[in-house]
Amino acid sequence: MSRQKEHAESPDAVTRSLSLPLVLIAFGLVTLLLSAGVLVTYFAYDRQASKVGDLESSNRKIQMEHVAIGGLIQKQQKTYAKQIENARSNAARQFTRGFSAGKRADDLPGALQRLERYAAVGLRVPRAIPGDLGRSAKIGRRKDGYALRWTQVSVFASSTEPLSVWTRQGWPGYKKRVKVGRRSVFRILGPYGVMFAWRERGDTYAVLSYPQQRWESVARRLITSMA
Question: Which residue has the higher pLDDT, 112 or 62?
Answer without folding.
Answer: 112
